[in-house]
Amino acid sequence: MPNFNIIKEVEAADTFRVKSIVGAFDLQTQKIREHFTGNIDIEDREWNIGLIVGSSGSGKTTIAKQIFGDCFCDFNYKESSVIDDMPKNKSIREITKAFTSVGFASPPSWLKPYSVLSNGEKMRCDLANSILEEKDVIAFDEFTSVVNREVAKTGSYAIAKAVRKMDKKFIAVSCHYDIKEWLEPDWIYDTDKQEFFFAQERLKDLKSNSKYTKQKNQTEKDFGNHLKNIII
User: Which of 53, 103, 119, 122 is least surrounded by CB atoms within 10 angstroms?
Assistant: First the structure.
C-alpha cells in the first residue's frame, strides 16, 4: 500500500521584507512547514488511469512525485523537428501512430520544433514520447492546466482511449476537476478532501444508497460511466 507521510520545510531568508510579512500577519516564524499524509491503495489492483486532483498548494505534485517520481514526463527537445526528437529506435510508422493515438494528428506540426508548438500540442507530444519510450506507467503534472477547456476535453478523451488500448497506466495530476468526466479515471485521490477511492466502487456504494436516484446525474457527471467504451 503506497502510504505517504511527507514533511516539507522551507526557511525564508532573514530579510527586512520577510520580517515585515512575519510581523504583519503574525506568522510566528520564517519557517514554512507543510505536512501531507494519506495513502493511494493501488497495489494488486487492476487500473489504467488515475487522477490526483486538488486546488493549488494542496500537495498534488509533492504526493505524486513521492509515489510516481520516476514516471513523470520530462524530455529534452533539441531537434528542429519534433519527429526527430522521438526515440531513435522507432520507425516513422510507429512514431506517427503514437502521435495520432494521443490526438497530435497534424503532419505539419510534426516538422516544427517543440518550442513553437501550442501548449496543447506540447502536451500531446510529451505523451506520445512517453508511449514510444515504452513506459508502462506515465505521470503527467499540471495535466491540461495550460490549455483551454475544449482542448482539455478532446485531449483527455484521446489520451484515455490510447492508454486503455495499449494497456498502460497513466496518472494525471491536475487542479481541474472537470477532467474526471473526460478521462474517466479508475481511481481518484482528492488532495482537498484527502480522500482516495476507486470510481466504480464509489458508484456501487452510491447505487446501494436510497438517495442514489437523486444523485445519479451528478455522480455520472463526476465519475463517468466506466461500463462504456470511449469512441472518438
Answer: 119
131 belongs to a structural domain: yes
Half-sphere exposure of 37 (CA within 13 A, CB side): 3
Percentages helix, strand, coil for the chain (3-state, rounded to 5) are 45, 20, 40
Beta strands in 77-223 (DSSP E): 137-140, 169-174, 187-190, 195-198
C-alpha grid cell, residue 117? 508548438
What confidence score (pLDDT) does residue 221 get? 57
Strand partners, 71: none
The H or E element containing residue 50 is strand 49-53
CA–CA distance, 16 with 20 (Å, rounded to integer): 6
* Residue 96's CATH number: 3.40.50.300
**Which stretches of the chain score pLDDT less than 50?**
227, 229-232
pLDDT of residue 231: 41
Can you give the pTM of this predicted structure? 0.80
The answer to whether residues 34 and 51 belong to one domain is no
